[in-house]
């Protein structure tokens, strides 16, 4: 469901396994006419291309989802609320008509998607979320060819109390590790969702880099094509300073939340540099500093700034997921938790304020999350999680505090 870069990869890997049937729920049915997806992989992984079969393609949930064991959302974080709302009637009908509940999961989650899943899909729906996408990847030819740029050694997954981690691991690992010699990520268990909300990953990496590169830009004047540098390969000192600041504040939130709610498991919320080295290890040439870790990670090497063409050149694309995911579903939820802990987070505040001007949004006003666009955020208090423990669990039962699900 939702076939972006990661959706292409998992469709191809799962489709190469004869034990799996792949069904794609997508608005772009026209690009899947061949019903096959070729996955290219880095040479050092060994082996050639992987070719997977796609069995069903459709745009209507009722035509695609019934009979499924797992419904996996592979689209951008910012589209998760609308995607869940779209499938909710079919998920509920499947539970009624089939006498069982399909597992619903997200290939990559940020914010309180576990609270969103409960409020949208129903408390009876087993839900799981991966803390990180298993590979860095890109689409080469939509609907036909995608490439794995780098793979992680392990990825953690959280499940609701009515979903089995053991079953989830058994089902998913063959879908992210193809049968013909491709060794991808192992799935490790997380007892709750707090480590997803506080994940030291995209939600601090992308905002730090965008701010570091464009903070002095007037948000109007176009750049000449080819002059922006790469997203990570040209990672500079200013971006690194911001990233270190955000990472430090995230760790402070982690320690405060751990003290306030010792029942939550935050052991995987390690400092960012440690997390990247653990997951990519020998793919990083220079591990001596935050800047060098970002700039010399081979898995990051192909990433570019999201841009849009305008008269006179190009400008940063504020509608891209690098922005739309990581502020309302990343830094805003972190700020929410910090506020509940009565923590000051000046770097998070600074980066939110700059991005919301870029986006034409209002989240943070005078240091408080009272902006007009807060309803679109997967933030704990917006989704009814007014107890800090709700950062990790969906119990006690919660009720959304707004009709934000659009």
TrEMBL record:
It holds the Pfam family Octopine_DH. InterPro entries: 6-PGluconate_DH-like_C_sf, 6PGD_dom2, Opine/Lysopine_DH, Opine_DH. Residues 191-359 form the Opine dehydrogenase domain. GO terms for molecular function: oxidoreductase activity. This is Opine dehydrogenase domain-containing protein. It comes from Triparma retinervis. The lineage of its organism: Eukaryota, Sar, Stramenopiles, Ochrophyta, Bolidophyceae.
